[in-house]
Automatic annotation (TrEMBL), chain A:
Name used for this protein in its record: Transketolase family protein
Top-level lineage group: Bacteria
Protein family membership: Belongs to the transketolase family.
A Pfam family that the UniProt record links to this protein: Transket_pyr
UniProt keyword terms in alphabetical order: Thiamine pyrophosphate
PANTHER family found in the cross-reference section: PYRUVATE DEHYDROGENASE E1 COMPONENT (PTHR43825), TRANSKETOLASE-LIKE PYRIMIDINE-BINDING DOMAIN-CONTAINING PROTEIN (PTHR43825:SF1)
Residue ranges constituting the Transketolase-like pyrimidine-binding domain according to the UniProt record: 14-179
Cofactor(s) needed for function: thiamine diphosphate
CDD domains cross-referenced by the UniProt entry: TPP_PYR_DXS_TK_like
Gene3D superfamilies in alphabetical order: 3.40.50.920, 3.40.50.970
InterPro entries listed in its UniProt record: PDH/Transketolase, THDP-binding, Transketo_C/PFOR_II, Transketolase-like_Pyr-bd, Transketolase_C
TrEMBL record, chain B:
Protein name: Transketolase
SUPFAM superfamilies: Thiamin diphosphate-binding fold (THDP-binding)
Keywords, alphabetical: Thiamine pyrophosphate
PANTHER family in UniProt: TRANSKETOLASE N-TERMINAL SECTION-RELATED (PTHR47514)
Pfam family, one: Transketolase_N
Amino acid sequence: MAELNTLVADKKSLANLDVFSSTLQELASTDKHILAVTSDSRGSGKLVPFGQKYPSQIIEIGIAEQNLVGVAAGLASTGKKVFAVSPACFLTARSFEQIKTDVAYSNNPVKLIGISAGVSYGALGSTHHSLHDFAALRAVHNLIVVAPADNFETEQAIRLAAQTDHPIYIRFGKKAMPLLSEENQQFEFGKGRIVNEGDDLILVATGETVYPALQAARQLENVHGIQATVISMHTIKPLDYALLTSVAAKGCPILTVEEHSVYGGLGEACASFLLENGFRNRFKIMGIPDEYTVTGSQIEIFDHYGLSEIGIADMALNLLQKHA
Amino acid sequence: MSLQELARKSVTYRKNILKYIVGAKAGHTGGSLSCVDILNVLYNYVLNVSPETAKSPNRDRYIQSKGHTVEALYVVLADKGFFPESDLETLCKYQSHYIGHPTRKVNGIEQNTGSLGHGLALSVGTALAAKLDELTYRVFTLLGDGELPEGSNWEAALSASHYKLDNLCAIVDKNTLQISGPTADVCNTDPLDKKFEAFGWAVRHVNGHDFQELTEAFDSLPFEPGKPSLIIAHTIKGKGISYMENQLKWHHGVPNQEQYAQALTELEEAGMAL
């Protein structure tokens, strides 16, 4: 396996949120149609420099998420490239009907940016966790749902979103993210990225769980000689069925990992596709169980629910032993 | 268009609303009849939009927040040439685009609505875009008095005044009845004028069936520079048909053939009197 980029736990590495902010600034410098619309989230969305540089391109709505999405849809209907930025938990729960009706049904190409997603607001508790957004928004027709895993995927997703005339939801967390590989050349919505290849196990992860999945794969290889394919399934919808088909054909166990409820997210999306298409690989979904989460930092919560390198590796071994 | 011509248009529109609702065996009859005079004035007197300019960046926009009375909008858009009136024979039928709430699949309709409390925020965004682009188009939205308890309306009302959207005009079709009963009993929103004024809007009351009052109000926009305008149009649910007026059951009642014949007779007589 190629060595991971060691930006990993380095404080100099950037959060996807920072990459979002800097990319949006760059895009806005040459495109006056780019608008950032926020719900008192200019600071938490790292949009203060954007607002200072482009004051006419940032619109503050205040703490009113339904209005945020409705106004964003109205703006987008006139040809503006609107990035509606709000904490993922509120953006997707309080505004669900506006996302469904004003954005997706009316085909107003708003770019919905869910910040501090999953359990990024760990200690703030379950009101601030977005563990339902994949489930809810997967069920909305005409909406692309994306969870970038690293700075490269985030930058590419924002650039592509600005170009696409399609409603889209992109969510990411707060903490610094390592690059997943040195060769970050291809990114396309709906096309998962293979970040490691192996024939013993398939790890399908999304967002900020891809990195611990990749670490787990390295541990499995180094300690047990187990070779795992690791996929960053950054697009939850449309799901990359072609890639799933090709890796499932190896016949080995499949483990999905996500910072989301085990209900209705990446895992269930993969499971339904595979089962409907005749695959009978041993299969396990890792995510947040059906409970309100424990208090702690994002890392502590990952550890608690086994979404860490060790937890994922242990689950993989368990799955492989059952398979043997 | 003269006030008399507007009045004659409304008679035709009311006939057509009933014709297509009877044909579909579905529709929101009472509310369509209460708001159709407002739509008549908007499309025949106020709005700078036509089938030829339907995609023009500087066209005026109309967004119908009370989407359930789409039948009134359909007959007006057909009359303006956005689509052949015969299309409405498919109203609410299998695979028709002319469904029971506005959809952009129908030429001339700006936004999909139907869920209540959505039109005002959409209108705020659209009006804000005009300000940002220094375009002169105006945005009009029709709200029902029954949908006003939706909190999204009040979020949007705050934004409209915060951004000084004097290119935005909301009209409340205040027919005072909603599906469960009198609006004042279900959730009283009065005094509506004081509430919107407190939110930073300039407000006027009109008789929503009086073409002179309606045209004068629209001629006076914006009521105050730097403020969004609200027209509270006092209307009668089921207006124009004696047995429907102010009767709750006609919220989405469909006339039988005998009732339909009587309604047409009443409308003929009203037309003759003009």
